[in-house]
């Protein structure tokens, strides 16, 4: 028995290298054939499922457009944060590289942020309300073309032409720095007659903030509006900055009056550093 077993094993060994090679080739081809066969069965179902969710053109069939329209669909995800004020959140509105590039440009010309003064206010009486540093950059000044792309995208989501936008105000908040709650729109009763009005604001967060630095809406859904609100307090709807994400809110109601719930501020940064690019959008075209 032993010798027979041995001889069988020996027999296998005696097949030699060419036969082993042929055997391997045989199994390899068998495997290849099987995999092609199976994948042929699988591929159509997998592909059609992908196509169902991705091919907007096929599902919705774009309409013929006017001269300035698009012949394709655009998908820009957003989340409604609030109806009072009307506030939308856009995850991944800009890429990490775009954010880094904007910060790099802004860093060269930062100055202490200033404040539009109300009747009777002075720089001295308003000290501490807005403590960030910032700089104004128009899209045409950015040779990388990134601000132009961002501006274009903001115009698409607001459907307010980019000619209505002020230059980007890029802001840096260091630890302890903040902007007390305020309106972006200018009430003529407090600021005097206005040539135009800010309709909406778009904030593009250029950095994450480890702690603090939230954009806060204290009067969201008319809460805290009993007249006792302390403007330095960070209460109400808080939006934590996330790099690349956008926040859009409207300062005017559809009928053109100032939305009192659009009061907002920037909570003090507790850990880290906050960078944000702000675009104020007006009701009429801006020079420049
Ligand atoms: C505008 O709309 C608001 C909210 O609906 C309303 O309270 C206000 O009176 C309106 N103002 C004018 C001038 O129509």
TrEMBL record:
Presence of the UniProt keyword Metal-binding in the record: yes
Principal location listed in the UniProt entry: endoplasmic reticulum
Pfam families: 2OG-FeII_Oxy_3 (PF13640)
Keywords assigned by UniProt, alphabetized: Dioxygenase, Iron, Membrane, Metal-binding, Oxidoreductase, Signal-anchor, Transmembrane, Transmembrane helix
Subcellular location(s) of the protein: Endoplasmic reticulum membrane
InterPro entries named in the record: Oxoglu/Fe-dep_dioxygenase_dom, P4HA-like, Pro_4_hyd_alph, Pro_4_hyd_alph_FE2OG_OXY
Recorded topology in the membrane: Single-pass type II membrane protein
Reaction catalysis annotation: L-prolyl-[collagen] + 2-oxoglutarate + O2 = trans-4-hydroxy-L-prolyl-[collagen] + succinate + CO2
UniProt keyword annotation of Iron present: yes
Ranges that cross the membrane: 12-38
Domain of life: Eukaryota
Domain Fe2OG dioxygenase: start-end pairs: 163-283
Cofactors, names only: L-ascorbate
The protein's name: Probable prolyl 4-hydroxylase 9
Source species of the chain: Solanum pennellii
Gene that this sequence comes from: LOC107008857
């Amino acid at each position: 028995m032993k010798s027979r077993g041995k001889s069988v094993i020996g027999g296998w060994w005696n097949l030699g290298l060419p036969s082993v090679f042929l055997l391997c080739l045989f199994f390899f081809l068998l495997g290849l054939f099987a995999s092609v066969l199976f994948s042929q069965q699988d591929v159509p179902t997998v592909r059609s499922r992908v196509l169902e969710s991705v091919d907007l053109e096929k599902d919705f069939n774009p309409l013929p457009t006017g001269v300035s329209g698009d012949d394709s669909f655009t998908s820009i995800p957003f989340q409604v944060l609030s109806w009072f004020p009307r506030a939308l959140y856009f995850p991944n509105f800009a890429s990490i590289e775009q954010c880094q590039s904007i910060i790099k440009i802004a860093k060269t010309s930062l100055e202490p942020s200033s404040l539009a003064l109300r009747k009777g206010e002075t720089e001295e009486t308003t000290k501490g309300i807005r403590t960030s540093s910032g700089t104004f950059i128009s899209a045409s000044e950015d040779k990388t073309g990134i601000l132009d792309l961002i501006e274009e995208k903001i115009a698409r989501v607001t459907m307010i032409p980019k000619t209505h936008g002020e230059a980007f105000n890029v802001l840096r908040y260091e630890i302890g720095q903040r902007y007390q709650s305020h309106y972006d729109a200018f009430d003529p009763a407090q600021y005097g007659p206005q040539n135009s009005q800010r309709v909406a604001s778009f904030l593009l967060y250029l950095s994450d903030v480890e702690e603090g630095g939230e954009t806060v809406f204290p009067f969201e859904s008319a809460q805290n509006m009993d007249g006792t609100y302390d403007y330095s307090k960070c209460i109400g709807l808080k939006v934590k900055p996330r790099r690349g994400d956008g926040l859009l809110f409207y300062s005017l109601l559809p009928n053109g009056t100032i939305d009192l719930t659009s009061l907002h501020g920037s909570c003090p940064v507790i850990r880290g550093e906050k960078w944000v690019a702000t675009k104020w959008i007006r009701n009429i075209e801006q020079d420049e």
